[in-house]
Design goal:
The chain is mostly beta strands and 123 residues long. The chain contains no helices and 10 strands.
Length: 123
């Protein structure tokens, strides 16, 4: 398993922006998809955005246009640029590395998760 560390969260006002980072130490992310998730009401988590090893990107529909996922394999880092943040976006954001790629179901309990990074959107 690949151990990842999330960072970049913080407190922002509605309409503000943050860029989250998901970084691996000691392992390369080149061959992995990376999935950003957050807890959601009534669910353990919801997928926010995912990027495949080939760079293809995926977003939950209601976040399209506000969030952008990208990767820099040389830095073993995946980024989530979050713009026009809303209070409903407040959550702890987590990332995990996926061997099988985006869009394929996986067992959350079998994944390696970090502590997450807290995003708080409030005035």
């Amino acid at each position: 398993q690949v151990q990842l560390v999330e960072s970049g969260g913080g407190l922002v006002q509605p309409g503000g922006s943050l860029r989250l980072s998901c970084s691996a130490s000691g392992s390369t992310l080149d061959d992995y998809a990376v999935d950003w998730v957050r807890p959601a009401p009534g669910k353990v988590r919801e997928g926010v955005s995912c990027i495949n090893s080939d760079g293809a990107t995926y977003y939950v529909d209601y976040l399209k246009g506000r969030f952008t996922i990208s990767r820099d394999n040389a830095k073993n880092t995946v980024y989530l640029q979050m713009n026009s943040l809303q209070p409903e976006d407040t959550a702890v954001y987590y990332c995990t590395a996926l061997q099988a790629g985006c869009g394929i179901g996986y067992d959350y309990d079998s994944q390696s998760w970090g502590q997450g990074t807290q995003v708080t959107v409030s005035s």
